[in-house]
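Homework-ish question, so no full write-ups if that breaks the rules, but can someone show me the predicted structure for this set?
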Amino acid sequence: MRRPDLMIASADPALRKRLAETPPVLLLDLPLPGYTGLESLQAIQTLSPTTRTIVLVARPEDSDAVLALKQGARGYCSRQSEPALLRRAVQQVRDGEIWVGRSVTTQLLEELTAASTRRAPGPPRRLGRLTQRERELVALVAAGASNKEIADRLSIAERTVKAHLTSIFRKLGVSSRLHLAVYTLEAEGFGQEKGPTDQSPIDRRPRS
Amino acid sequence: MTRITVILAAEPRDRALCRSLLPPAGAIEVVADVEGGEAALAAVARLRPQMLLLDLQRPRLDALAALPQIRLQSPRTRVILLTSRRTPTALILEGLRRGARGYLDRAAFRSFLLKAVRAVDAGEAWVPRQMVSRILDQIVRLSAAEARPRGGAGVTPRTLRTQRRGQERT
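A: Not a homework solution, just the prediction itself:
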């Protein structure tokens, strides 16, 4: 495994040249403490979208790791890591996985929950965007009906069912039938007396 | 070691298994066992335990539906989802989005239940490595949806990559 010794600057000609070879994995050494080098991550992705980058830093910080990952890094670890460990990191990242410490995973989960709650107005409001016909479809999907069954039930073509579903998914911001079913469940009022869940004043900081 | 109070919300068979794996008297105490999301919510609201082991049973999705409310009722309660080999990844991700701190396949109860409870109680996440990239994808997608002005920005390498991965999965 080659280890390109890279300059940080995204415009660096050596980096550009090496990236033209589209290496599957890139170990990016960011030797300056406190400098996350996020611009270079984005530049790398533009120059070689298939390259997966592992960021090496002098002093790993969970919050820096999360930032780097959000900017496109696929791994993050100390530059003092044992060679054997680095080799494993490279393998895992090449295979599509993320290489970070366990505590970073915890932070990622918190990010995920926070991002989900920030987003999306509560289900009831969004359901209001659907047409009457779309709402009929949603009820059938939630009841577990297949496209064929829905088509028969509403006397429309299966193709039409699919078109409706695409529109529903887009309007509600869901990605699958299952997701849709979960969504409806919530909209039906499970625990709505507390108001929209996206406003919940949940403490997202890790407790000590 | 401090005491960890646990509520079990699962089918009777799994509850019995979990109970047998958690030490009967000691650091971990099962304070209630129930079945279904609604019952879990009621028990958590009443007892505010440190931990809830919540079965993510299909086709009933009430466990998922109860999660946001559980967080509201008892923010300190950490949730581990109990899954099976057949639990779809989408469902697990949705559970994590709703605040669960980890999940455990019932096939792994014997080896890992105790470890998972301790780790999550200590503030760690309990998810296998291969799930981390899915979690990251979700975060990126959600942040992109937040940041994107209506009409959408151009296609970036990252969205391309994310889309490609999405297609592989389906």
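Now go work out the reasoning yourself. Hint: The CA atoms of residues 17 and 127 of chain B lie 21 Å apart.
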